[in-house]
Amino acid sequence: MAKKKLSRIDIQQMKERKERLPWVTAYDYWTARFAEEAGMDMILVGDSFGMCIYGYEGTVPVTMDQCITHSEAVRRGAPNTFIIGDMPFLSYQVSVEEAVRNAGRFFKEARVDAIKLEGGRRMKAQIRAIVDGGMLVMGHIGLTPQSSGQLGGFKAQGRTADTALELIEDARAIQAAGAFSLLVEAVPPEVCRIIRDDLKIPVYGIGAGVEADGQVMICSDILGIFQAFTPKFVKKYDNLGKRTLKVFTQYAKEVRSGEFPQEEHTYKMVEGELAKLKKRLK
Ligand code: KIV
């Protein structure tokens, strides 16, 4: 039986029932298929693909067109999963109108269920306008990679009373603007718990402790594909990077030695045709 895609109401009720919701990023068809088969509740087509797929140093160069292409592939791979498109840098900061138009592209072209954007109080107008346009919005505060320069790098946030209070104000503003959920990244678990208890909407975490309403991880991190660096909050469940290297090395060795391909990997000529061919070649 096909998996039933969660609705906004299901997601809200999971918070009320204190059910933790697992989700993961995916950037392509196959990863999305595996994520759906594994029963992930949501999939984020994160702009982290800038680093994980394209090899950029951060997420800033990622474009709307790239996001749409990857989101379309993920939708094809996971037709029955709640999919969130990630608004890339400068697709929503310039004006409220641009934010609504670009959010709309995710829904019209890639058939996502929600979009996510980074920023707290300063994104209130954008969130309100996208919600007024009939779309679901997830907020994202704490370590917001698109503004990591302003934050002084990829650093944990909210570690002092003052900065934690700022985050709590941001979280309240996002809820008041109509977001259906919030992602909190790289903050102490105590701060995440306060935000979770303070808000009615689900509060998910990445690097924010176990008490969030659910967890997201970057697929390339938990699979062990991304090699450039590993944040403290990542658990590597496998080392597909190492396994891929092993496969490629063995394949190259077998091609060079003539061990691959074997007869079982080849096609047979139709009976009698080889003799005919040889005759014609004389
Ligand atoms: O782009 C991304 O993958 C993210 C993660 C922090 C989940 O936003």
The biggest beta sheet reads: 8 strands, parallel
Contiguous helical run count: 12
Give the H and E element order: HEHEHHEHEHEHHEHEEHHH
Question: What's the shape?
Answer: elongated
Question: What is the assigned CATH homologous superfamily of the largest domain?
Answer: Phosphoenolpyruvate-binding domains
The average pLDDT score comes to: 97
Radius of gyration: 23 Å
Using DSSP, what is the number of strands? 8
Low-confidence stretches: none
Summary keywords:
single chain, 282 residues, alpha/beta, TIM Barrel, 2 domains, eight-stranded parallel sheet, 12 helices, elongated, binds 3-methyl-2-oxobutanoic acid
Strand and helix map with partners:
Elements: H1 8-16, E1 21-25, H2 29-37, E2 42-45, H3 49-52, H4 64-77, E3 82-86, H5 96-110, E4 114-118, H6 124-132, E5 137-142, H7 148-151, H8 161-176, E6 181-185, H9 189-198, E7 203-206, E8 214-217, H10 219-222, H11 240-257, H12 273-281
Helix pairs in contact: 2-4, 4-5, 5-6, 8-9
The chain binds 3-methyl-2-oxobutanoic acid.
